[in-house]
Amino acid sequence: MLTSDDVRRVARLTRIALSDTELTVLQDQLSKVLGHFQSLQMIDTEGTEPTGHASEGRTVMRDDLSAPSLARSDVLKNAPESDEPMVRVRPVLGS
User: What is the total count of domains within the chain?
Assistant: First the structure.
């Protein structure tokens, strides 16, 4: 079980301000997380090959093949706004 001082130290290191209520809730939650890790450490993994995935990884993506693109007129007729020969979009970055 983590102490409130442990949680205060972590909060200070991460520059997170916590009220007393938040500190109590976080203390309980972090203690539970660490408890789960402790239970995982008790599992016998002797002879188990380390791996990055739980199952054999294989790609499910198709080959990247070139294909003709849509005609510009077809693309522009489906665009909410256009300014020949481009699709008009709202600004993403403020000025």
Answer: 1
pLDDT < 50 stretches in the chain: none
**pLDDT in the model for residue 86:** 87
**Structural domain contains residue 94:** no
Cross-strand pairs, 86:
83
Give DSSP secondary structure letters for 40-84: HHTS--TTPPP-SSSS-----PPP----PPPPHHHHHHHSSSEET
pTM: 0.48
C-alpha 91/C-alpha 81 separation (Å) is 13
Which amino acid, one-letter code, is at 32? Answer: K
In a domain, 28, yes or no: yes
**Tens of pLDDT along 28-40?**
999 999 999 999 9
